[in-house]
Give the backbone structure.
Amino acid sequence: QVQLVDSGGGLVQAGGSLTLSCAASGSTFTITTMSWYRQAPGKQRELVATITRGGTSNYADSVKGRFTISRDNAKNSVSLQMNTLKPEDTAVYYCYARVFVATWDDYWGKGTQVTVSS
């Protein structure tokens, strides 16, 4: 069994910064893609940023130039540096990983709240 623990959310003023972190733990496993998603109240969960095991990253247009995703394969962790935050970035942010244990499966963190005040 693999667990993802995400953390780092909080309340910040518009223009501020936050860093989210997520670490995977459990039995022997291999992780390929790691991502951050977010879900605002009344909206569907959306992809924010994704990074491959090799380090190739992609971002939603709404966060390009403001957010940076990074990972540490040795620590099975992924981070999201969020700068120049806007009120519309307010959401619950979820860590995601594509993991191989006995089979390939999708794993999610429990989510961390990010609130940006205007």
